[in-house]
Design brief:
The chain is α/β, with parallel strands linked by helices. Helix content is 42%, strand content 19%. The longest helix has 17 residues. The protein is globular and about 45 Å long. The chain binds 4'-phosphopantetheine (PNS).
Length: 161
């Protein structure tokens, strides 16, 4: 079974993330969307909320599972018997950080590969941070996140104002 892990903060998941998940689900037998619990960023959504939101938008992809992980990503991958980490690359600016991450992960566990997928150019400008900022400032997030999760995001942002 070819299993891959797509890790991230997903705070919240965007159309860019979903596009990568869709494409990866065609390449691998199973894709685990793994939400990092120990991110240094201060998240808007709790881990449980992020999982619930992701589950809503991956329903059409039966070989996509949603999970969380704590600690080193490569340890999590080994435990799941997944030997590929999927990362999306939006622009050259992502490259330096991702190159460093892929290199350190390779050093930590040699048998795990990082596979980079180019983000669909439609979403190359998109990030979870921008979604939160635009939503907070009452802009439209219609084209940025899946339709069904817009009310959840706006409700959360409104509850903080
Ligand atoms: O969506 P993000 O915030 O860019 O995702 C970053 C993430 C969660 C993929 C990255 O921070 C990560 O892999 N964290 C787990 C800890 C780890 O293994 N770090 C790399 C070796 S130091």
């Amino acid at each position: 079974m070819k299993r891959a892990v797509y890790p991230g903060s997903f705070d919240p998941i965007t159309k860019g993330h979903l596009d990568i998940i869709k494409r990866a689900s065609k390449i691998f037998d199973e894709v685990i969307v793994a939400v990092a619990t120990n991110s240094s960023k201060k998240p808007l959504f709790t881990i449980e909320e992020r999982i619930e939101i992701i589950n809503k938008v991956v329903q059409d992809y039966p070989n996509v599972k949603v999970d969380t992980f704590n600690g080193l990503l490569v340890e999590y991958c080994s435990n799941k018997e997944a030997y590929v980490i999927i990362k999306g690359l939006r622009a050259v600016s992502d490259f330096e950080y991702e190159f460093q991450m892929a290199s350190i992960n390779k050093k930590l566990k040699e048998n795990i590969e990082t596979l980079f997928m180019m983000t669909n150019t439609k979403y190359s400008y998109l990030s979870s941070s921008l979604v939160k900022e635009i939503g907070r400032l009452n802009g439209s997030i219609e084209d940025l996140v899946p339709q069904e999760i817009i009310p959840i995001i706006l409700k959360k942002l409104n509850s903080l104002q």
